């Protein structure tokens, strides 16, 4: 049963940014500066939000920017995607440097969502639109691909083809499962994942929003993350909510509603990673709706640990150590939960 015992929550939502993004995306909590990194995609702005002052500083780039992930070795540097390129951004100089490029023969393709796995390896998906002069949402179906990039060479490696809107991705706490969204088809896929090699196998349809009654009114699955219990959190575009899903059964566990329709992505952050930060888009919305653009929710009862930053120079030892830390942290945190209930 994927429809019963849904816990609703909408009591502690607040707006945390004075800035109003056209298309807010890619939230990533930076624990070194206690700031929220995010993107204003269509405006080409890479943003850094001080959640205490609610002020944002940003760097403008010419093109479509969709992700920003700090370097594990130097938080003044960040891996970003710009159109079909992966680039290194320097917050101090505001300059960028090319790291990789994909789909060079597909001029209307561009990157969308992306994250790093437990080793610091970057994953990002691209998809196609029908033409730059047309509506940016005019999708060219099945033209997208999910890529990974292994440092230091950053040679693109294609994993999943014929994706229509490559979007949210996350891993299970033990890094043995990978979950991946195609928003256009409203499907979440699952894979077996080998963190040491970066291989995906055993692709399955984990959840089809079109076929399960509990999800038919949940809009389009967009950004995704997981909490400390391994439960999936998914931003629902055109549905004013984020939802929590059991990764074993697909059961809908919890809904959190927001005063904005076009919810795009989400991440945990703040002290102890107990705050859920949510981005949204305002294209086509009223002035009142546009006020609720980047929000924070504090009543879900969930928390997570920090997101993985980009690791530009991994070694075999690094891979082993990070996998060991991830597994031990997962076991420890779950033991802590059991002891405190």
TrEMBL record:
Binds 1 divalent metal cation per subunit. The active site is at 222 (proton donor/acceptor). A divalent metal cation binds at residues 25, 167, 222. InterPro entries: 6-blade_b-propeller_TolB-like, SGL, SMP-30. GO terms for molecular function: calcium ion binding; gluconolactonase activity. Substrate binds at residues 112, 133. Its EC number is 3.1.1.17. Its cofactor is Ca(2+); Zn(2+); Mg(2+); Mn(2+). It catalyses: D-glucono-1,5-lactone + H2O = D-gluconate + H(+). This is Regucalcin. It comes from Alectorobius mimon.
């Amino acid at each position: 049963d994927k429809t019963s015992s849904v816990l609703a929550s909408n009591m502690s939502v607040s707006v945390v940014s004075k800035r109003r993004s056209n298309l807010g995306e890619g939230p990533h909590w930076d624990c070194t500066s206690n700031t929220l990194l995010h993107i204003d995609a269509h405006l080409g702005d890479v943003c850094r939000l001080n959640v205490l002052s609610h002020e944002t500083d940003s760097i403008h780039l010419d093109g479509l920017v969709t992700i920003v992930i700090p370097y594990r070795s130097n938080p003044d540097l960040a891996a970003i995607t710009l159109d079909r390129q992966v680039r290194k951004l320097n917050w101090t100089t505001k300059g960028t440097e090319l790291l990789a490029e994909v789909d060079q023969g597909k001029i209307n393709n561009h990157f969308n969502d992306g994250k790093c796995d437990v080793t610091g390896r970057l994953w990002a998906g691209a998809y196609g639109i029908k033409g730059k002069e047309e509506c940016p949402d005019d999708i060219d179906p099945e033209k997208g691909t999910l890529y990974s990039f292994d440092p230091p060479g950053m040679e693109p490696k294609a994993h999943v083809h014929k994706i229509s809107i490559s979007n949210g991705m996350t891993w299970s706490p033990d890094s043995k499962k990978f979950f991946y969204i195609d928003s256009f088809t409203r499907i979440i896929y699952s894979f077996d994942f080998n963190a040491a090699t970066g291989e995906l196998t055993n692709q399955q349809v984990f959840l089809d929003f079109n076929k399960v009654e509990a999800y038919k009114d949940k809009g389009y699955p967009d950004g995704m993350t997981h909490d400390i219990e391994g439960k999936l959190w998914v931003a629902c575009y055109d549905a004013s909510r984020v939802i929590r899903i059991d990764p074993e059964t697909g059961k809908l566990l919890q809904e959190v509603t927001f005063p904005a329709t076009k919810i795009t992505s989400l991440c945990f952050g703040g002290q102890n990673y107990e705050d859920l930060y949510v981005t949204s888009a305002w294209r086509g919305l009223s002035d009142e709706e546009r006020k609720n653009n980047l929000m924070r929710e504090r009543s879900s009862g969930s928390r997570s640990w920090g997101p993985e930053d980009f690791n530009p120079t991994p070694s075999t030892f690094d891979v082993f150590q990070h996998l060991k830390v991830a597994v031990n942290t997962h076991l420890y945190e779950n033991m802590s939960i059991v002891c405190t209930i």
